[in-house]
Design goal:
Layout: H1 2-20, E1 39-47, E2 59-64, E3 70-74, E4 77-82, E5 85-89, E6 99-103, E7 109-115, E8 119-125, E9 128-133, E10 137-141, E11 144-148, E12 156-161, E13 167-171, E14 174-179, E15 182-185, E16 188-189, E17 195-196, E18 201-206, E19 212-216, E20 219-224, E21 227-231, E22 242-247, E23 253-257, E24 260-264, E25 269-272, E26 283-288, E27 294-298, E28 301-311, H2 312-327, E29 337-339, H3 357-375, H4 378-396, E30 414-416, H5 426-436, E31 455-457, H6 463-479, H7 484-503, E32 507-509, E33 515-520, H8 523-526, H9 536-554, H10 558-568, H11 572-575, H12 590-606, H13 613-627, H14 633-643, E34 647-650, E35 653-656, H15 663-673, E36 691-693, H16 696-699, E37 711-713, E38 744-746, H17 749-760
Helix pairs in contact: 1-13, 2-17, 3-4, 3-6, 3-17, 4-6, 6-7, 6-9, 6-12, 7-9, 9-10, 9-12, 12-13, 12-14, 13-14, 14-15, 14-17
Length: 768
């Protein structure tokens, strides 16, 4: 029997085990974790391209001024950043052309006899400065220059001075140390007798605890109190084309490279690349100020990355303000994303309809429902109520016009008639789509007009829209609707939509009298038509969750009777055991994932049928197991809400469905890691050394079997959210590279929904 039980478990978890090379899932976490604290440090990046006084073009040197200022040297000479402002340091008339200049403590420029192009580093040294050139060392002290000894022909990359006064250099002859008899190579041997740092060392630094670091093409080494420690791609090192190292006051170490910057936090490496984080990926030098603010000299000016104290509640309010100011569309406040007329300029936001305004507004509104349940903040109730009215309008706008679908039908989205007619030229696109998709519907108008002539509304509504509507309405009815009038208004919307489905054979019927392309939930399609085999599991899960919500909201027993009919006569409880056609982590349709989690959450919360609870919970467990490597806080919180401390029983016995160790930490790392900047900046990761590409077999997808640059980090999980950009949770998180031009502002819903859900379920501490 134990063997049979393992076989049963393998149905859901076997592909996970094969994919990540382990015979068993990680340990489970049955205990409820302590609520995550509100306070954290938010990473914030800054650039100065728009500041006319800031340095422009290539910047090669960063020097800490004696007054806390930062001085830069580049194509435009010396500049200084002090008290939040830039100003140039202008050389005097006595400075020879073509020679290197250096600012003294007062900011005056003095000339050296060095060629301007040879200096690669200026290092504070006592009361003076050490000037490092490619083949020489010069010291400026007490108003005069002194030439320091350096071996002829050795090419310098960087110099570091330890607290005990030892000089270290990274150079063409390896990692070297200055002694009484001159510069001598340091022997660096790893446990496998490999010699590191024997030549072409690219950077050296001493961190706040006195540990020596070096960087080379082979990787990074750190001399700890226990001996040398080495890092390569397999150890999480992202890249190796180093240009230098800078140590910070809290033990952090920054590595500059030709393709971005890398931070060692004390336990792991973090990679920052692309215009979200830097003016240019070509970074020549870093400087870390006493407060931890890291400055970077790049090929296109100067940037910085800071860690600012913040709470999760403050972060949520930041996204809420951005949604209110730039993203809401129409008087109803539909919430998706907003294209920008000017890249990078939020004030130029021009929000337009998306294909799924109902779904995205529903997910935003559901977050507000959980926010109100957790905090009783009246602003959350106002936002949730506005979302309810927007979704209700998608149901009422379809009625009374010509043509008009049956009562209860919901539109995908709306457009004002003052804009271009969205039907013009549309039919040709439908005909082309039908050549690829044999079930695609070709009809006109796809955008009918409302009865009052004010709106175009989009038809052919899909199952993901309905999943969002029912997910929202359940949360709104339970957590927000308080007065009898509010309750009745919600009941009417849910009843009309559920009755529409039941009266049409569990299908969503469009203006042409036929089910929409993705709106089939009845047994004739799901159980008896092979064309719908791939949708059988998910759509069975969806319709059962809809009926559970309708029964909960209206109190009408007919919805439970319909639910029982689908379970008892048509096997829908068996269908939902396998709601996703996939080939392991990273495969399948990622839109299905967020749909499934909403439906699982609702079915377990509002379903009144204990006879199938174990099957639903096990199916949820198997589904979550495939999604666990994605570090998704919405998925993790939705699952944990129904799985913590739970066991299920079947014919082989009883076993745990607790989430695995790390689920809470992964969720919180993603929430904290979300950049405040939600613009669609590009990210490049496919070149990284710490990437494991999905094999063609693992990456295979039901709809697109090609492997187009997909993979995961060496820990088996998708890349952190700081290295990706997506508007919604339906984006493929296994993709390595992301396009974009800073011309679309994404909604903060991807943060707000899981944050408020985690707050409601006690996974995050309440704001004070």
């Amino acid at each position: 029997m134990a063997c049979m039980k393992r076989v049963f478990l393998a149905v859901g978890l076997g592909v996970w085990a094969i994919t990540f090379g382990t015979a068993a899932a990680p340990p489970a976490s049955p205990a409820r974790p302590a609520p995550a604290p509100q306070a954290f440090f938010q990473e914030v990046a800054g650039r100065f391209q728009a500041d006319p006084a800031a340095p422009k073009g290539r910047v090669s040197l960063l020097v800490a001024g004696p007054d806390g200022s930062v001085r830069t040297h580049g194509q435009g000479g010396w500049h200084q950043h002090r008290k939040g402002r830039w100003h140039p340091l202008i050389p005097g008339s006595g400075v020879p052309a073509g020679r290197f200049t250096l600012p003294d403590d007062a900011g005056n420029l003095v000339a050296s006899d060095l060629p301007k192009t040879s200096v690669i580093q200026v290092l504070p040294m006592g009361q003076g400065l050490l000037v490092v050139s490619t083949h020489r060392l010069d010291r400026w002290d007490s108003g005069k220059w002194t030439r320091e000894p350096w071996p002829e022909g050795w090419a310098l990359a960087q110099v570091a001075v330890a607290r005990d006064g030892t000089w270290w250099a990274a150079c063409s002859h390896g990692l070297v140390r200055r002694t009484a008899s001159g510069w001598e190579p340091e022997s660096v041997i790893d446990a496998g007798d490999r010699a590191w740092a024997v030549r072409s060392v690219l950077g050296v630094a001493v961190d706040a605890s006195g540990q020596l670091w070096f960087a080379s093409k082979a990787g990074v080494g750190c001399r700890t109190p226990k001996g040398w420690r080495f890092f390569e791609g397999k150890d999480g090192l992202p890249w190796n084309e180093f240009t230098g190292i800078a140590a910070g006051p809290a033990g952090e170490v920054w590595f500059t490279t030709s393709r971005g910057v890398i931070r060692w936090t004390g336990s792991r490496f973090q990679y920052r690349q692309g215009p979200r984080w830097l003016p240019s990926d070509a970074v020549s030098q870093a400087l870390v100020q006493p407060g931890g603010l890291a400055w970077f000299a790049t090929a296109d000016g100067v940037g910085f990355i800071d860690q600012q104290a913040m709470t999760l509640a403050q972060k949520a309010e930041h996204y809420e303000r951005e949604i209110d100011q730039h993203i809401r569309r129409t008087p109803f406040g539909f919430t998706a994303e907003a294209p920008l007329k000017i890249p990078g300029d939020r004030a130029s936001a021009s929000p337009d309809d998306s294909d799924n305004d109902g779904l995205w507004t529903a997910m935003y509104g559901a977050g507000e429902c959980f926010a109100y349940a957790a905090t009783r903040d009246p602003k959350a109730k106002v936002r949730a109520t506005k979302a309810f009215e927007a979704l209700r309008f998608l149901q009422t706008v379809t009625q009374g016009g010509n043509p008009s679908p049956p009562k209860g039908y919901v539109a995908r989205t709306i457009r004002p008639v003052e804009g271009p007619d969205p039907n013009v030229g549309r039919i040709e696109g439908d005909r082309e789509e039908a050549k690829r998709d044999g079930l695609w519907k070709v009809y006109e108008p796809r955008w009918p007009k409302s009865a009052d002539g004010r709106w175009y509304w989009k038809s052919d509504t899909s199952s993901d829209e309905l999943d969002g509507h029912f997910f929202f309405h359940a949360a709104y009815f339970e957590h927000v609707a308080e007065t009898p009038e509010e309750k009745d208004r919600c009941r009417e919307v849910v009843r009309d939509l559920a009755d529409h489905l039941m009266s049409h054979g569990f299908n969503l019927v469009d203006i042409d009298g036929q089910p929409t392309r993705w709106g089939r939930f009845g047994p004739d399609s799901l159980n008896r038509d092979e064309r719908w085999a791939a949708e059988r599991g998910l759509n069975s899960l969806s319709i059962l969750s809809y009926l559970a919500v309708a029964g909960q909201v209206t109190g009408d027993p007919k919805y439970l009777e319909a639910y029982r009919e689908l379970v008892d006569r048509h096997g829908y409880a068996q269908n939902l055991m396998f709601p996703k056609v996939q080939f392991g982590p990273g495969s399948g349709n990622h839109s299905d994932d967020e749909m499934a989690f909403m439906c699982f959450y609702n079915l377990l919360r509002y379903g009144k049928d204990p006879s199938i609870t174990d099957r639903v919970r096990y199916s949820f467990y198997a589904y979550w197991a495939m999604e666990a490597p994605e570090r998704n806080p919405f998925f993790n919180f939705a699952f944990a809400a129904h799985a913590l401390g739970k066991d299920i029983r079947n014919v082989w016995g009883e076993f745990s469905v607790h989430p695995w160790d790390g689920w809470h930490e992964d969720a919180m790392a993603t929430l904290r890691g979300f950049p405040l900047d939600r613009l669609n900046w590009p990210h490049q990761n496919s070149h990284r050394l710490d990437i494991v590409r999905l094999s063609r077999q693992q990456a295979r997808d039901l709809y697109d079997p090609r492997d187009e640059g997909r993979g995961h980090a060496v820990d088996g999980k998708v890349l952190p959210v700081e290295n990706r950009h997506f508007e919604h949770w339906n984006t493929d998180p296994w993709r390595l590279d992301y396009g974009g031009g800073g011309n679309v502002l994404g909604s903060g819903t991807v943060f707000l929904l899981p944050y408020y859900l985690g707050l409601y379920h006690g996974f995050i501490e309440k704001p004070r």
